[in-house]
Amino acid sequence: MFGFWRLWLLATILAIGWALLCFALTHDRRYLRRVLAIVRWSAGLLLIVACFWLIFRLLR
Membrane-spanning residues where (predicted)? Predict the structure, then answer.
């Protein structure tokens, strides 16, 4: 399970870095919106997993 989280974190960092690099090179604001979408999606996924983990811990 830890490998999945490490892979997810690496993919998220690479996607954010790619979008920021593209923004720096082109100054196209669409790339900033992509960064925001990636951050929102990642935070949402983390929140959902944390809620399930907390529920599991409380029921156990």
Answer: 6-26, 38-56
Would the pLDDT of 13 be above 90? yes
If you write DSSP's letter for every residue of 1-60 in order, what string do you get?
A: -HHHHHHHHHHHHHHHHHHHHHHHHH--THHHHHHHHHHHHHHHHHHHHHHHHHHHHHH-
C-alpha of 56 from chain center: 23
> pLDDT for 41-59, tens place per residue?
999 988 998 899 899 999 9
- Whether 35 and 43 have beta carbons less than 8 Å apart is answered as no
